[in-house]
């Protein structure tokens, strides 16, 4: 296993920027995810780690070994490509054994290793099938087995679940995590699906337009987004504009665009937020933290009129018009009567759940 360092890495394609100034240190054995919308530079960064692209600037190291300009076959990384890139005319066995053949592993050892890996990814008995006789989920596992069989130091997975249906995605997500924990392998995972990233990763790097926006644990990224982009990309949130009106001990008072006064905690601010009187701030308020008011909270209660109410069984979701703002809330169904469109509602925004995103 090995750590991976990207030291101020840039990739340009002619005039077009691929990625800019990616600077990360991924620990040995870590499950690290690149997350961001289409075209943000996830595959480009992964390909530089695998050696399929060389950086325009910067350095890549595996442990203390400089690999920046090493070709892919000298890097000992296993990669699952965005479209799997399996060999359709070969059997499952031949696909998985391919990397061992290239590395001139003798036939007896290769057979033993392929069979062991097939067992690990639960493909026993499928060795003689052709790729086009497999389901999407089975193909995905062949791609994973092909990457794992060479016993890579680093496993690179580029949207490996994107072709699977919802149920299979969840199952395979669990399986990949199980394998990663079992083998303790440094894993870099690419996805544009925030739930996938949140549930699997030790840390996440959020990217937009080739630039790193934030690196942190799922908890940090969710609760402490550094800007509007991260706040809204990672799950649903309410983004309210406000102006800092004053301070009271460790609390900051903010007047919202529609004139409500809210109190938040000074400690809940991203380094980019300007918390001084008269400055504009963006507040991120997660829907699940907004509670129906009991009437006893004293502060941070806003009133409004329900625009939409949605009952999903487990949850009750409201969209409420509060002055000129709209506020989404989501709560566990406790069997209370559900408000309907047009009903008046009081909502409590606990001060510790307001985050100043800057
Ligand atoms: N070989 C190439 N030549 C020119 N431009 C490229 C090349 N590869 C990628 N790009 C550009 O670099 C940017 C990042 O592309 P990349 O494939 O890394 O995005 P991505 O985050 O993986 O997106 P997706 O989620 O759609 O797979 C895009 O603007 C893309 O058009
Ligand atoms: Mg991609």
From TrEMBL:
This protein's record includes keyword Membrane: no
Pfam families in the record: ABC_tran, TOBE_2
MF terms (GO), sorted A to Z: ABC-type transporter activity; ATP binding; ATP hydrolysis activity
Species the sequence originates in: Brevibacillus brevis (strain 47 / JCM 6285 / NBRC 100599)
Recorded GO CC terms: ATP-binding cassette (ABC) transporter complex
The protein's name: ABC transporter ATP binding protein
Ranges where the ABC transporter domain occurs: 4-234
Keywords carried by this UniProt record: ATP-binding, Nucleotide-binding, Transport
SUPFAM superfamilies, per database record: MOP-like, P-loop containing nucleoside triphosphate hydrolases
